[in-house]
Amino acid sequence: MALSKIRSVRALVGRGGGADYHDQSGGHWIDDHIATPMARYPEYRESRQSFGINVLGTLVVEIEAEDGTTGFAVTTGGVPAAYIVEHHLARFLIGRDPAEFEKIWDQMYFSTQYYGRKGLVINAISGVDLALWDLLGKLRGEPVHALLGGAVRDELQFYATGARPDLAKELGFVGGKMPLHHGPAEGEEGLARNLAGIGEMRSRVGKDFWLMLDCWMSLDVSYATRLATRAWNEFGLKWIEEAISPDDYWGYAELRRNVPRGMLVTTGEHEATRWGFRMLFEMECCDIIQPDIGWCGGLTELLKISALADAHSKLVVPHGSSVYSYHFVCTRHNSPFAEFLMMHPDASAVVPMFHPLLQNEPVPEQGRLRISALDKPGFGVELNPDVALDRPFPN
Ligand SMILES: C[C@H](O)[C@H](O)CC(=O)C(=O)O
Ligand SMILES: [Mg+2]
């Protein structure tokens, strides 16, 4: 059945939390001396905002059909992504049937390939793609997970990312992933502090709780190997995440060969498209891939990435992504659990990941979410009318 055609595409931007979840005010755990590739420069070590982690802000894409039905999605990208959406990508949507998401994705990707392929442009494409899925769900009166073939389980189980895995355990999560604080530039003392932090957390959470470490691209293979080996042997660390640069596929392959048998190497949060993930699979870089659905190419591309992962016996546990993750994870056998990023400043309470941008954003209770909570048309969320959004490039 032909659907109402697309009549307008709007790109809006906003600041302060939302999809750019690093854009938090002072005192937040997410900006507390976290190890990064920029930590080799002492002046950019204390705070990620000091080197501009939050310069982009949130991008909101709205796609309106001729009957007035509007789908929307949020991602990181702000003003530069809004320009790309309004001035380049919109042309592939106006007058088209929203069910043509394959052709639309293909045209968005190949028309921008000469300046795109990864990063900001793919964030913009992801935002458009997710807004299209939201619109499709609303026009068909079905949740996105139903459009993907339906849930394969009745509830989602979550681990939490934040500074306090011990509190995450009390809140019912199955595991806790904490940020690494000291990079190689902080030498042996930094390494000792990193290990002491993991040890301290292990003693607080007990031996059976999953404990993981997020290194946010900050290490080299040799440091990561030493850290992983000791953290596994001494404290039973379950996985080491994004230890080195996402461009260093060779380094990931080496790290995976180096870590103790049983320990997991995870990455992919800053990887994009089926071609990027194919490198991770074919080079045996990791055990779990963690695409961010707003950064990897959107849902249309994630379905391809996930099928590739399945064929390589890899798990897909998306990075953050809130509702975009929940609607996807519940439909895949090789996505057995999901991440929840703790947005409370001291990681002591559950706050919706994209707070304050959305209304009705579901959150886990006792570390779990019933799939029935997702049973609303599209992704089942609305924009919060109290959040100020601008449209910098009205067409
Ligand atoms: C905590 C990490 O440094 C980052 O802010 C979030 C992340 O990488 C993750 O949730 O995974
Ligand atoms: Mg991560």
TrEMBL record:
Catalytic activity field: L-rhamnonate = 2-dehydro-3-deoxy-L-rhamnonate + H2O
Active site: 319
This protein's UniProt keywords: Lyase, Magnesium, Metal-binding
Biological role stated in the UniProt entry: Catalyzes the dehydration of L-rhamnonate to 2-keto-3-deoxy-L-rhamnonate (KDR).
Site, Increases basicity of active site His: residue positions: 292
Signal peptide: none
Site entry: Transition state stabilizer: 339
Protein name as catalogued: L-rhamnonate dehydratase
Description of how the protein assembles with itself and partners: Homooctamer; tetramer of dimers.
Amino acids binding substrate: 22, 48, 339
EC number, UniProt record: 4.2.1.90
Any one Gene Ontology molecular-function term assigned to this protein's record: L-rhamnonate dehydratase activity
Cofactor, how bound (note): Binds 1 Mg(2+) ion per subunit.
